[in-house]
Amino acid sequence: GAGVSQSPRYKVAKRGQDVALRCDPISGHVSLFWYQQALGQGPEFLTYFQNEAQLDKSGLPSDRFFAERPEGSVSTLKIQRTQQEDSAVYLCASSSQGWHTEAFFGQGTRLTVV
Amino acid sequence: GENVEQHPSTLSVQEGDSAVIKCTYSDSASNYFPWYKQELGKGPQLIIDIRSNVGEKKDQRIAVTLNKTAKHFSLHITETQPEDSAVYFCAPGFQKLVFGTGTRLLVSP
Known about the structure:
The complex is a heterodimer. Chain A is 0% helix and 48% strand. Chain A has strands spanning 5-7, 10-13, 19-24, 31-37, 44-50, 53-56, 65-68, 75-79, 88-95, 104-105, 109-113. The termini of chain A are far apart. Chain B is mainly β. In chain B, 0% of the residues lie in helices and 52% in strands. Chain B has strands at 4-7, 10-14, 19-25, 32-38, 45-51, 56-59, 62-67, 72-77, 86-90, 103-108. In chain B, strand 7 and strand 8 (72-77) form a beta hairpin. The interface between A and B is medium-sized, with 23 and 23 residues.
């Protein structure tokens, strides 16, 4: 596709529900990143993939957060037993090589936990 | 971890004026220094970046200057236009991008 695509754009979840957020990176991009952006704040790093390998997951806030990229293209961020503090915009970005090349961001998924 | 601060947090200018946003960081290992622009409801978009072996880079109305010794870099926008209104983030990094808290720029016609 022309850019990074994320779905759904908006998700409302009841507290305790599991959610899955999808990211379709730019075709051929090796690197994929997930960020969490709270209202009025800068994006915060969650995790980084190079192809299918998850090289850095130091930003995942708890073991309720899990990300995968099994075939080195589409990625899914899963949040189990959602809590109100998980409410945020989740951004996905991809780049052609490593983290230090231009990262293209999707529009994000706005998650609201009620 | 990396501590990134931006100043000012908000900046209001008249169309045609210049705008300067400063970013300070703590990790001396950082070697990549991008600036991102984020419009409402959209993801951040790279507008300019610089690497640690370069002191200044310019792209039309936008420039970035880097002072590695002092650990800060700045975004300069000249001849501002209303469409420059957005939130700007610096995101210095070594092995991952660490975003600053953002600067809301408002350009009035």
